[in-house]
Structure formats: structure tokens, C-alpha cells
């Protein structure tokens, strides 16, 4: 098992990528994360490793994508453990920059915005969240980009459906050379979508959180109407529903729960906000 | 004299750049323009040619940087003449995409914003202008970028001082690999800063427009106070002053007319908006 090289500066990461492509590596894959890696991340890391000659995982808790009342300060940071886990997956490079390295001098003057598409659904409760996430991923894509002759892929989970769609739009709208590869949701045996924030759940809350996936399955299976599904989530103890909607998976426009539509749910379980989604079978 | 290759698609331009670097070209220079090339552009094109193995000039009238009441429809378009002029300067590649090629499906969902820094000075009278200019240049930089091992430069005139500053910030904030090379203002013999919009001036208006440069010179030479300078511009027939300020050249924050400061002027001459600027000698 080879330890990944941990790069803390943009220059160092670029040198490491360039050295590997100069030595014959023919593809580069990037998995952007905020660390606190769980089995969901590791499955994507495994895929990044398998599909690319150079596997890069970034670990950066991005202040721009946290709102004022959110958990930026308390978000779990465990770089040593993350690096150990990524070593087991034979990742080549870990990019773990400081906030000052990513945003020298503070908040960037020029940044990325997703306008109206980033202000609905998750964006409605988290103003600025998607702009922050797009701003940092835009930088990561430019930093890691190995150049015209080397295929470059970036991996995003389908769990953050709105984020995935906006990343795909950014790649197209900004002419990034990267190919976005979506990765299916990883779930616990009981169906809970894996998330770093699941750490915040008490065992009892983790039990209540199962209602999200169970309800999506019932909705996707046609056993519940949208209204019944909403009532079922809302009736679960300690669970407070934010939204449960079905949307067009390409545009995120709200639509009927028809075959092919994407059902999206967001809820607080105790003080912890969770999201999940599921396609309605075509 | 070799004709430049005129590329109308992103893919074609990328292929042409990649073919040249694969054949040994060791640097690439980009001059972004909206066409209607005048002697000011051509001087920058000459420098782009002299300093790079591959010289690229983009000619694209970018709808995003025009406001609702502005001259997008009537902005001069003369690609054939532009290509002839660029051939004389031995430019290798002209990138002249359609609006649909740059913005497939219409206005981009994800775009670039300069926030407060783009809302003052020129931005105050032209809401959205800088965001539009940044959005298209961000795309051009990513499209032309020849990859890690090839030095890449982009050329911007100092005439659009605020634009130059914001482009430099974007390159830093987005980690673009390009080096921005600023190019001094080119002037007519009488001192008028060259601009495509000078085409709109009657001979008489062109005469009145000389007050801008003459006043900046007097201000920079300490012959006029800021208030006297403003009155002088405002007193010129057919000239309506928008702003005449001195700013810190690194931040655009308004400052006293002290040595090293940048004096910026914007005025309408008849219906035509003109800008100019000059450093106060240190």
C-alpha cells in the first residue's frame, strides 16, 4: 500500500499531476470532497482509482458554501484518517489546501453564480450554497486539468442531485474539458443515504431518518401519492419536512410524479438536515 | 502573407491550437476582441504575434456584456475586413464563433460575477456589463488554454482599466494558468484614445472628445484640481460628464489625486459613451 502524496498548495498539486502525465499517465480523475470520508466517498474513490491512471481526491471544507447559521466551524475535519482511508483505495494524490491557499486575501472578488437555478430547492434554504460550491469546484477543475491530450474526469454523487446538475451546467457553460461522471447513491443496509452529517444523528434519530428513503421508495413504487408521501415524512417523530417534490431530472423544473421524474426530499432530523432522492422508474 | 485560419467552433479552435503545440509551438497568446478592429487592436495583435509562437485573436460581439438600451444590434461587424487586417499582422488563428456556439441554448445557467467591484464606475452605468465580459473571457481562456507545459498569455488594453483589473482578479480567483499582459493605451495624434465607438463620432464631436485626454493630462500634471478638471470636461460643447475620479490602481477604491493614482474619466460625446484614463506620475 503506497501512501498518497498530500499536496497543500496549488503549485505542488500541479507539479505532481504534470510529473505523472509526463511519465506516461494517460488519464486523470478528480473526486472533490470536504473530507470526513465515509463508505459513500470511498466507493467513489475506488471508481476514480479504477477508471484513471492518476486518482486525485481533494479534501477542503469550503467556507463559501456554508451559510451564516450553518456548521462550517463544527464540520468534521479528520485529514489523517481521510488520508489513511484513501491510501487503502490506492489514491495517488490528496489535495488538502488551507483556506488561505484557496482564497488568498479572503473572499474572492470574482466568483461563480448559478442565478435562479441555484436559488430553488436546496438553494431556497441555503442561500449562496451552490454559488460557493460552484466557485470552489471551478477552481479545482482548473487546478487539476491535465491539459488537452489527457482525458480528465470528475466524480459527483447523485445524492446531491441539484449540485450534480449545476456542476454539469457549469462544465458546459464554462467549456471545462472535464467529463462529469455521476455516481449512484450509496446507502446503509437499512436504506439511509450515506452522508458526513449522519455522524450528527443519535441512534434513535438514525432510525427516524429511515423514513426518507422508505417514503421515496413507496412514492417511486406508486404506493403513495405525493401528498400522502409528504404526510408520512412529516408524521415521523423528530423529523421536520422541508420539501418533497418531483422534478424533471435535466432542468430541475417541478413536474408530476411521472415515470422518469426525480423525487427529491429534504428534511431536518433533530437539528440535522438530510437529503435524498430517487428516480421514478420509467 | 499567410491567411489566418478562421475557426468558428470551439472544437476546431482547440484542434488548431493542439496541432501547433504538438508540432513544437512553445507559447500561445490570445487577444480577445469584439472585432471592428482599429489601430489600437492591431498594435496589441502585433505584440501578441511578437511574443508568442501561436497568436490567436477572438472576434466575438458578446451579447452578455451589452445592456438592454445599448448598441448590441448596431455594434459594427466586419469580420472579412478584420481577418484581412489580422493577416497583415501574421496572426495564426482567428476565433469567430456564433452566439449559439458560445451560448448553446441561450443565456448560460452558470456564469461569472464580479459583485461589488463590477457595480461601481463603468459598472454603475452599465449593470451586468463586467459580469458579461468576465463570463465570455473565462470561456475563451479555458477554450484556448494550451495546457500545463505551454506558456499562455492574454492581452488586455489599459484603456478599459476596470475591465483589466477585474480580468486580473478573475485569473487569480479562478486559478487560470494564463498570464495577463496589459497593453498601454493607443491614441490618435491629437490624443484621443482609440476605440471602436469613435466610428460613431462626427468630425466635430471627435474634436470635442479631445477634452477628455487634455483634461487628464492637465490633472496628471497638477495644473488642475479634480473639481476644475470636472468643470472643464462638463463645459465642452456636446460633452456630458459621467465621472472623473482618481482611484487606487490595484483596488479601484476612490482616492485623492495623489502620485501613482489612476485618473479615470467617462463621458458621453453626443450619444457616444467614451472612457479614458491616465496614471498620475509617481
From TrEMBL, chains A, B:
Pathway as given in its UniProt record: Cofactor biosynthesis; (R)-pantothenate biosynthesis; (R)-pantothenate from (R)-pantoate and beta-alanine: step 1/1
EC number: 6.3.2.1
Keywords recorded for this protein, A-Z: ATP-binding, Cytoplasm, Ligase, Nucleotide-binding, Pantothenate biosynthesis
Name of the molecule in the record: Pantothenate synthetase
Amino acids binding ATP: 34-41, 157-160, 186, 194-197
InterPro entries: Pantoate_ligase, Pantoate_ligase_C, Rossmann-like_a/b/a_fold
Reactions accelerated catalytically: (R)-pantoate + beta-alanine + ATP = (R)-pantothenate + AMP + diphosphate + H(+)
Gene Ontology biological-process annotations: pantothenate biosynthetic process
Amino acid at each position: 500500500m503506497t501512501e498518497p502524496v498530500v499536496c497543500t498548495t496549488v503549485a505542488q498539486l500541479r507539479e505532481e499531476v504534470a510529473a505523472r502525465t509526463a511519465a506516461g499517465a494517460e488519464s486523470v480523475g478528480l473526486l472533490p470532497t470536504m473530507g470526513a470520508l465515509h463508505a459513500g466517498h470511498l466507493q467513489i474513490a475506488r471508481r476514480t482509482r479504477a477508471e484513471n491512471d492518476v486518482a486525485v481526491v481533494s479534501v477542503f471544507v469550503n467556507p463559501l458554501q456554508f451559510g451564516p447559521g450553518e456548521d462550517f466551524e463544527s464540520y468534521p475535519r479528520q485529514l489523517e484518517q481521510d488520508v489513511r482511508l484513501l491510501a487503502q483505495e490506492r489514491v495517488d494524490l490528496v489535495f488538502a489546501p488551507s483556506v488561505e491557499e484557496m482564497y488568498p486575501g479572503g473572499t474572492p472578488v470574482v466568483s461563480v453564480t448559478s442565478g435562479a437555478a441555484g436559488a430553488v430547492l436546496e438553494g431556497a434554504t441555503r442561500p449562496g450554497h451552490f454559488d460557493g460550491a460552484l466557485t470552489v469546484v471551478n477552481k479545482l477543475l482548473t487546478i487539476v486539468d491535465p491539459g488537452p491530450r489527457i482525458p480528465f474526469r470528475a466524480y459527483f454523487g447523485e445524492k446531491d442531485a441539484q449540485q450534480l446538475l449545476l456542476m454539469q451546467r457549469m462544465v458546459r457553460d464554462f467549456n471545462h474539458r472535464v467529463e462529469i461522471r455521476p455516481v449512484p447513491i450509496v446507502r446503509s443496509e437499512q436504506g439511509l443515504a450515506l452522508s458526513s452529517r449522519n455522524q450528527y444523528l443519535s441512534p434513535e434519530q438514525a432510525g427516524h431518518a429511515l423514513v426518507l428513503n422508505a417514503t421515496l421508495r413507496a412514492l417511486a413504487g406508486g404506493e403513495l401519492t405525493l401528498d400522502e408521501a409528504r404526510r408520512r415524512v412529516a408524521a415521523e417523530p423528530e423529523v421536520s419536512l422541508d420539501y418533497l417534490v418531483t422534478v424533471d431530472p435535466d432542468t430541475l423544473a417541478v413536474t408530476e410524479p411521472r415515470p422518469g421524474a426525480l423525487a427529491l426530499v429534504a428534511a431536518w432530523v433533530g437539528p440535522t438536515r438530510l437529503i435524498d432522492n430517487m428516480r421514478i422508474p420509467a
